[in-house]
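Sequence, structure tokens passed on for absentees:
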Amino acid sequence: MRLIGRWDITITTPTGTAPSWIEIDSSGRDALVGQIVGIVGSARPISEIIAAGDSLRFAVPHQWEAGDGDLRVVFRLQGDRLVGRR
């Protein structure tokens, strides 16, 4: 699968940009798992990644961000780059 690997990403916020990364790997026969570094905190595990074609989505429990909901992320592969939004 083309989405497997470590991806350097840039997170855009109202106050600027921040470097980050996401790592996607296979687990077992057909599951995807990974980890992500957000704007604050450390590498956080992603327990389930849902992929469809060149798109993926996942949720990560909040860590240090404001609010109490999960961080939900949607990415798609565009050429050789991941493009996404939360």
User: Anything to note?
Assistant: The chain is about 0% helix and 60% strand. The beta strands are 5-13, 16-27, 31-37, 44-46, 50-52, 55-60, 71-78, 81-85. The CA atoms of residues 1 and 76 lie 13 Å apart. The two ends are 23 Å apart (CA to CA).
